[in-house]
Design a protein that fits this description.
14 helices; alpha+beta; 400 residues; binds magnesium ion; four-stranded antiparallel β-sheet; MutS, DNA mismatch repair protein, domain I; Dna Ligase, domain 1
Amino acid sequence: MIIHADMDAFYASVEIRERPELSDKPVVVGGSAQGRGVVSAANYVARRFGIRSAMPMAQAIKRCAELVVLPVRMELYAQVSTQIQAIFHRYTPLIETLSLDEAFLDVTRCQRLMGPPAHIAELAKLMVFKASGLQCSVGVSGDKTTAKYAAKLNKPDGMTIIPPWEAEEVLRNVPVIELCGINQGIGAFLAARGVYTCGDMKQLPIGELGRRFGNPGRRIWLMAQGLDPEPVRSCLPAAKSIGHGKVLAPDTRDPAMLRTYLLHMSHRLGERLRANRLVAQQYLFGLRLYRGWLRTIERSLLPCDDEMVIYRLGERWLERGWRGQGIWQLRIVALDPRSPCQDDLFQRKHPRRVRAHRAMDGINARYGAMTLTPARLLGRSSMPDVISPAWKPGGHRKSV
Ligand SMILES: [Mg+2]
């Protein structure tokens, strides 16, 4: 169950909230008052004059002489948008922000806790209004495309529910180009094959769209039938991380070999952190077992970029956490890589270590990875040299 929430005339509504005396006047935000530029947003009074966003400002002014033209204040809108997102987060962590004023909420798994989607949608609308004084329109359905289409149907301050089992029927007579993501180009391709409405889509074999547009093409075919397969992609704060993984020979149990792999991955991770001038303090270590993963997050005392510090964290955990089970894969991820800050000046690693790394990284950059390595990694050539996504049961691909 997906809710699409779309703020009504967002930029204009924020401006009017700041200046309530403008509420019954035609207001646009955008361009410049001298008539250049375009309309970024128009309130509903202005829309009665036929003014739309993306319209040249000169044309908008021609349509309505009393038009109030306000400059864009993006920081303010972003601030309000953040407040509204925070409200949505009370309902579900699965939120995909499309722009400052639009978001998808996946509430499939919230229903037991919060009630049916229509109830959640109504509550969200109310909370948005209470917290920001702004109105939004929501669409509720079983997939993203139908939910987004539904939200447009009753603007402003609307709520439209299209039960998933009715989506195909509701979309049947809707022109395909009204669906979000179907532009004029794709529309022309479809029209040339007799597909104008969503209902026409079934006449076209899905493979024809697939051949021309690949997976997005196949998605379009499904979208038209209210079956958009695209999940809500929640935008948790960009979890930047740097990781390395290694697929091992299946069911590896040799502790010495595991340590060698651990050192190898630590080595590559350290090298990459240094190459990007980053340090990290939290590391995720993961071992893939026959079924599931054995995982831990370990913290180093200080932020670092030193493979030996990373390796020792992993080794200590192996001693504690690994009971000799067969291992299929090993992963190390630096979870919080960031630029070293002033504080780190007091925590600098030993100058000899800095020089050693500089020399080693320089030589490896010039003569190829692993030209200079810890002696324990010299024997690694006897092991399959693979990176995780490339491993196939039939054999190993050489890693880069
Ligand atoms: Mg909007």
